[in-house]
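Student: Please help interpret what follows.
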Amino acid sequence: MRNYELICIIHPDLDENAFKAVVEKVSSWVTEGSGTVDKVDIWGRRRMAYHINKQREGQYVLLHLSMNPAATADLERNLRFQESVIRSMLTVVE
């Protein structure tokens, strides 16, 4: 098991319930890959440096994860297909 940080920029037009549903969906993908979500840090709505998909703002979420390195490919693939997630970045924490 390795420790990871996953930062996601979620579409700004989602209401609070839909936003929480996306965060829970991402967390469930981690647990399906036999990992754990150690901490969820919601940064809120922020202005981005440049337009992404014609959006100037996004809702930022930082997740601290512990998971098997082999399961990261599935997680990143699922994030790419989730339309509400504008951008995501998964990094290893040493």
User: Anything to note?
Assistant: Helices lie at 16-32, 72-81.
